[in-house]
Structure formats: C-alpha cells, structure tokens
C-alpha cells in the first residue's frame, strides 16, 4: 500500500517525452494513473509479492550487446530490481540478437493485443553505476555483458533523482559487510602509482555498489580532443568547453505522403570559437572489467564542426520543451572568403 504522495509522484513522472515515438503498448502504460499504475506494476511486472514500486522514469536506453540501437523505455525502480519496459519494435529490429532476448515468435489473431519486452536487472546483481558528464546519462553495470544498460536521460534532474532513489533502495538490501578498509593516504587512495593520473571519483555505497563520477581530467581529455579537430587553433594555450549537452540532430525525410523528421542522437559541444557535433559511445566506456578487447569505435567521433564566426543566425521554434534550434551558417565550404580574395586577385 504505497503512500498517496508516492502514487501522485509516480503518476506525475509517467509522461512520455513528446519528441519521441513509442508503440501502442507503451502508450497504454503512459495512460495509467494513480492506483491503476501501481496495480499494473504488481499484476504484470513485479516478480515477488512484497515488492514496492519506488520510482518511475521514461528514458532512452542503450544495451551493451546492441550499442547502436537507442530505444525508448519505461524504467521502473522497485525494492528488488530495475525493470526496463521496452518497445516491442526494438526486439523485432534486432532479431540477430536472439541469444540475448530469447524471443519466441507468436502470431496473435487479436489485433488489440500488443507485446512489450521487459528487461530485469536485479539489485543484488548490481555492481556499479557510472554517471556521465554533467549528469546527462548514467550506465548501470551488472556481472556480465547482458547486464549493462545506459539510460540517456539528457536531463541532469532526472539523473540525479533516479540516483538518489536507487541509493535509498540499495540501503534496504541486506548484504554481508565488506571487510574494513586499510587506512590510506590521499595519494594512494586516488592516484595510480603506475600512470600518476587521478582516477575517477568513486563512492562505495553501504550495499557495496560503486557510484563512479567523472573527474576534471575527463573534461581536459575532451578539450584536448576538440582542440585536435580545430584547424590551426591547436596552439591555443587554453581551450574552454562552455557547453556539453546530449541532443538530437533533426534530419528531414521527404516521404510520399508527408515530410517526416528523424532524430539522430548527437553530443553537442560548444567552445568559445566553434560548435561541434559528435557521435559518442555512451555504453562501452569506461571498459567493463570482463572486456577482453577495446570497443570497435572511439568514444568520440566528430560528425560536424563549424566556426562561431560563420554563424549567421539562430532560429528558435515556439514549442515548449524540448526546444528546437536551427543554426544557419554562411561559410562557403569552410573557407575564409577574404583570404581567398587576396590569393585570387593580388597573388600570383
């Protein structure tokens, strides 16, 4: 019997982001309110009777086995597990992953019947939680490759709220206490004697689950990577990253009936002189302990980069959050016009 405040909070959180499309089955879940939502959880999702629903969140998710497929999910946190209620189209799109999903094809004559796939990660199997830069996403890691999921919240508030709720639920778990740590000084605690680099900040919860947060060096590494992509500006003594945000690039697809738009996930990075779009690997880094080899692609791959001096205007839509921005650049093939005029008219 959850409290009224909890039921009201879960009901308020049960809203699909307007810019993302989901199947009819997930739309049905998003339409549930109040006690009907709690009853749906206990009747269709919960695995044990005395399980309590503590938190609900809609988020895009990535799985370690399918790193290129981002799918919308309803994430339900209970006192026993984390449930990812997935769109059935995701399973159909990745039939080659049959060893992962164990999907059985079943033809249902009833057209009003809609299937959803539920991925369960038990809290007892949870080993670590990696929080991404600026709390834009977080990765949950279990004991194998099948148990690694990244939630792309694209919202620091949603990330922070989920982490707080997860810590509270983990505090209820009865686990054998870890041995008393040996007293260490600052350098042996945070520094690696081999590389001399500072490691990421780790918070070891009482349930022995690690919460790993990025440190300043990740921003430094990212700034160095960005500087490499900037032609002729790599000699800058200092390069500041002003903004890092997970966004979508809108690609208009001209269809026969009506023009539609597809959303491509991108990482937008703004510096004092340039605007960059990167394809980022949100699931493979940092490498899990059981990884035998590094991922096939780099963490950051440059998709597009433009100079702020070439920015002509920014068009803003009038719809509510999320806001659509259109950047209009007047660069001619990324060439400096005055320099070319000099070469053409005054040079040999």
Automatic annotation (TrEMBL):
Pfam families documented for this protein: PH_NISCH_C (PF25625), PH_PLEKHM2 (PF23142)
InterPro entries per UniProt: PH_domain-containing_M2, PH_NISCH_C, PH_PLEKHM2
Keywords: Cytoplasm
Domain Nischarin C-terminal PH as annotated: residue spans: 241-347
UniProt KW Cytoplasm keyword: yes
GO biological process: Golgi organization; lysosome localization; regulation of protein localization
Entry GO terms, CC: endosome membrane
Main location: cytoplasm
Domain PLEKHM2 PH stretches: 114-178
Protein name: NISCH protein
A GO MF label: kinesin binding
Localization per record: Cytoplasm
Signal peptide: none
């Amino acid at each position: 019997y959850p409290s009224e405040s909890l039921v009201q909070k879960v009901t308020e959180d049960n809203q699909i982001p307007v810019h993302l499309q989901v199947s009819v089955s997930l739309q049905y879940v998003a339409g549930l309110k109040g006690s009907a939502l709690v009853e749906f959880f206990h009747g269709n999702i919960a695995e044990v009777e005395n399980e309590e629903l503590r938190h609900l969140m809609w988020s895009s998710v990535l799985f370690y086995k399918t790193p290129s497929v981002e799918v919308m999910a309803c994430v339900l946190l209970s006192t026993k597990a984390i449930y990812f209620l997935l769109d059935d189209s995701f399973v159909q799109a990745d039939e080659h992953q049959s060893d992962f999903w164990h999907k059985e094809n079943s033809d249902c004559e009833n057209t009003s019947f809609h299937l959803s796939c539920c991925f369960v990660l038990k809290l007892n199997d949870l080993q670590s939680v990696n929080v991404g830069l600026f709390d834009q996403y977080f990765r949950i890691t279990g004991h194998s490759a099948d148990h690694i999921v990244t939630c792309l919240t694209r919202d620091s508030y949603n990330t922070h709220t989920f982490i707080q709720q997860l810590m509270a639920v983990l505090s209820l778990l009865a686990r054998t206490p870890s041995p008393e740590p040996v007293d260490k000084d600052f350098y042996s605690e945070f520094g690696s004697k081999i590389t001399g680099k500072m490691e990421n900040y780790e918070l070891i919860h009482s349930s022995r689950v690690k919460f790993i947060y990025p440190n300043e060096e990740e921003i430094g590494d990212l700034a160095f990577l960005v500087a490499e992509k900037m032609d002729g500006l790599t000699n800058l003594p200092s390069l500041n990253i002003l903004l890092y945000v997970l966004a979508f690039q809108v690609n208009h697809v001209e269809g026969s009936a009506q023009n539609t738009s597809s959303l491509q996930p991108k990482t937008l990075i703004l510096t004092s002189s340039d605007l960059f779009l990167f394809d980022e690997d949100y699931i493979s880094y940092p490498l899990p302990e059981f990884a035998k080899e590094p991922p096939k692609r780099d963490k950051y791959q440059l998709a597009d980069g433009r100079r702020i001096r070439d920015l002509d205007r920014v068009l803003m839509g009038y719809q509510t959050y999320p806001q659509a921005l259109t950047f209009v650049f007047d660069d001619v093939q990324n060439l400096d016009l005055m320099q070319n005029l000099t070469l053409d008219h005054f040079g040999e």
